[in-house]
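Project channel, design review

CF: Before we commit to the Corynebacterium canis constructs, I'd like one complete example in the thread so the newer folks can see what an input/output pair looks like. Taking Hydroxymethylbilane synthase.
RD: sounds good, go ahead.
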Amino acid sequence: MLRIGTRGSQLATTQAGHIRDALRERGVECELTIVSTPGDRSQAPVERIGVGVFTQELREAMARGECDIAVHSLKDLPTAPDQRFRLVVPKRADVREALIARAGMTLAELPEGATVGTSAPRRISQLRAIRPDLDIRPLRGNIDSRMARVGADLDAVVLAAAGLQRIGVLDRATELFDPHRFLPAPAQGALAVEARPEVADVIAPLACRQATWETTVERRVLRSLEAGCTAPVAAYASGNTVTAGVFALDGSRQLVDSFTGEDPVALGNQAAAMLLQRGAAELLR
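CF: and here is what came back for Hydroxymethylbilane synthase:
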């Protein structure tokens, strides 16, 4: 019986459950194993504690032999690969950002000075560029607790559509943003399935060629910019094109451009190099 390591949140266990079911369909006997991480026990914003605290403990549990496979949100993983394990990217979910607002409002319909919850610098900077009048508030907790604040102390929250989709509440979104207008995080909507080398063949059939290409480009942009996954950096790859952006946190400046190519690593490097030429390093500081 193979053990699939996952955090204990509803979203994490749902994501890992999809992988468990996919493996069972292929005749693999497997079960979920809950791994507690320091991040799960902290009330600090993710941007302060770092998303790596969620993924690293899963990796260490796998290295200790407590589980054979681990399921992560790919956007939370460091861009440098962990040579101890094999990684595949399954078919990707919705890449878009979602607004959940009171009274069914869209972003344009929110009143002046409306309170919007998000702690991600990438989201904050893009929201301020579109609506500089908004009052952006920190947001922490699981999906349910974040959504529960809408109509209580917040007018709206911004969440990843993929998470809403996976737990079956995407219909709560009052607006889904065009990913070219409101750029998502690199690898948003994608899972990473890692395995110990001795069971790597088990996860190989889960790999999606398109999702792998897209996320390789997007994460290469992030890596080449030497930016962390909580930096105000966004990237969205589709077809053979990537649109990448770096933003000033106050929304006053944004560097966004699109690039086309065939090799995902070379394309990501090219996009990052051009953004650096235009002054990305200054915004990242």
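RD: helpful, thanks. The chain has three domains: 1-90+190-207, 97-176, 208-284.
CF: The first strand starts at residue 2 and ends at 6.
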